């Protein structure tokens, strides 16, 4: 078996997969599956010790994922139905992702078709993750406004989480321009997708409880961000397939489109310099803007409360 591929398919690290394997081996041999015997089996499997605290973090994570179950007597067993469910969800996610990618390509082609008669020849660059976000930061420095659309507004992330996902330098500049100097007005359409931000936090902490706390702090801070006059966070329940960002000076002339992998993570983007394409992008964006709800409005606090409730129902601590 390709264990690395198996672990990736389930969203596990190799160590988390090792513990799952230890539980399975012990249970298959009719052995006790208490934390102590799991630690002993791990030592036999890997030839090294694991701290008890680390084991409990992993067991808690596997339980939250639905890959193991815990009896009233503190014994563990592999939950094959939970694993099968996760793999079925992954398969469906890949199918949806492919549909979204095809929609993205259709939207890009539509943008270009509208600019064929323009006297300006579009400039198109395909950029990897880091250069793409540096391009966003660079174009923001001379802009009056920045419009963005995404699953959870990165501008609301903690600096530690931004650094971890390699967007820290980009948003340091944007935070400075928007929050401190008040020279850049940022408008962000977002669905506040708690799965998206939680998965980022979980990769940072490798601990469901710490990941949950990180997300909770970020969501609570939305109340403070409502007060920033140069920031508009717009809640939109159903985002369009085209996720983008574009700066505006006296007029728009550039647009950047996110490119994602089959897990939904941003791997880079397409930078397009074309007045016609940028205008088309803004027209599409403003139509979606009209459907959204600004957190500054009277419904803002209610939306924040609902987002926090979604986080709690999906990832909040449950009794062992």
By CATH, the architecture of the largest domain is named 2-Layer Sandwich
Instruction: Tell me the fraction of residues in β-strands, as a range.
Output: 15-25%
Strand order of the largest sheet: 3-9-8-7-4-5-6-10
Mean pLDDT: 86
Tally of DSSP β-strands: 10
What is the straight-line distance between the termini?
Answer: 31 Å
Note the main sheet. 8 strands, mixed
Number of domains: 2
CATH homology superfamily name of the largest domain:
Endonuclease Chain A
The H-and-E topology, N to C, reads as HHHHEEHEHEHHEHHHEEEEHEH
Any idea of the CATH class of the largest domain? Alpha Beta
Shape: elongated
What would the CATH topology of the largest domain be?
A: Endonuclease, Chain A
Number of helices: 13
C-alpha Rg, in Å? 23 Å
Proportion of residues in helical segments: 55-70%
């Amino acid at each position: 078996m390709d264990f690395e591929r198996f672990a990736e398919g389930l969203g596990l690290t190799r160590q988390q997969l090792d513990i799952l394997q230890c539980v399975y081996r012990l249970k298959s041999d009719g052995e006790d599956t208490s934390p102590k015997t799991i630690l002993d089996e791990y030592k036999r499997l890997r030839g090294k010790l694991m701290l008890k605290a680390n084991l409990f973090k992993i067991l808690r994570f596997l339980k939250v994922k639905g890959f193991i179950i815990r009896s009233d007597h503190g014994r563990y067993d592999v939950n094959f139905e939970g694993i099968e469910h996760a793999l079925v969800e992954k398969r469906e996610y890949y199918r949806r992702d492919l549909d979204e990618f095809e929609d993205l390509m259709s939207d890009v082609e539509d943008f270009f078709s509208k600019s064929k008669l323009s006297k300006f020849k579009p400039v198109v660059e395909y950029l990897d993750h880091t250069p793409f976000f540096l391009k966003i930061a660079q174009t923001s420095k001379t802009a009056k406004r920045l419009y963005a659309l995404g699953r959870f507004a990165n501008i609301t992330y903690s600096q530690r989480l931004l650094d971890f996902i390699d967007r820290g330098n980009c948003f340091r500049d944007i935070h400075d321009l928007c929050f401190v100097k008040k020279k850049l007005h940022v408008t962000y359409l977002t669905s506040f997708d708690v799965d998206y931000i939680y998965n980022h936090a979980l990769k940072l902490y490798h601990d469901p409880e710490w990941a949950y706390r990180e997300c909770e702090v970020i969501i609570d801070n939305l109340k403070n961000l409502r007060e920033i006059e140069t920031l508009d966070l717009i809640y939109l329940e159903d985002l369009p397939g085209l996720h983008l960002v574009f700066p505006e000076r006296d007029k728009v002339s550039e647009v950047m489109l996110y490119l994602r992998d089959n897990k939904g993570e941003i791997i880079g983007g397409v930078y397009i310099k074309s007045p016609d394409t940028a205008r088309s992008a803004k027209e599409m964006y403003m139509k979606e803007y009209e459907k959204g709800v600004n957190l500054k409005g009277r419904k803002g606090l209610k939306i924040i409360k609902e987002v926090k409730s979604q986080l709690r129902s999906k990832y909040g601590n449950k009794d062992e």
